[in-house]
């Protein structure tokens, strides 16, 4: 089951270690322009990190280029 992972401010968007597990409910992510959170399966590391599949990386790219949240990617404004 896919869960949500919150990205640390300024962290690499394509590095699973940049994200912290938050659970099945989407976190609050006001605004747009920067990746806030992703919904993904666990990557199996035992550390609670997301599996950033090519499909999810594509959604991240689309979200950033359009400024619109995607099915599994939430954006936010700069903190």
Instruction: Report the helical percentage.
Output: 10-25%
Mind telling me the C-alpha Rg? 11 Å
Low-pLDDT ranges: none
| Average pLDDT reading | 93
Describe the structure.
The protein has 79 residues and is an alpha+beta fold. The chain has one domain. Helix content is 16%, strand content 27%. The model has no long low-confidence stretch (mean pLDDT 93).
Helix-strand layout with pairing:
Blueprint: E1 3-7, E2 19-23, E3 34-40, H1 54-66, E4 73-76
Antiparallel strand pairs: 1-2, 1-3, 3-4
Highlighted features:
alpha+beta; 79 residues; four-stranded antiparallel sheet; 4 strands
In summary, what is this structure?
The chain has one helix at 54-66; strands at residues 3-7, 19-23, 34-40, 73-76. It is an alpha+beta fold and 79 residues long.
């Amino acid at each position: 089951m896919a869960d949500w992972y919150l990205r640390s401010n300024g962290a690499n968007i394509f590095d699973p270690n940049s994200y912290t597990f938050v659970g099945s409910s989407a976190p609050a992510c006001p605004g747009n322009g920067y990746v806030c959170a992703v919904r993904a399966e666990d990557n199996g590391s035992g550390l609670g990190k997301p599996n950033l599949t090519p499909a999810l990386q594509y959604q991240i790219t689309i979200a950033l280029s359009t400024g619109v949240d995607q099915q599994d990617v939430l954006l936010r404004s700069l903190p």
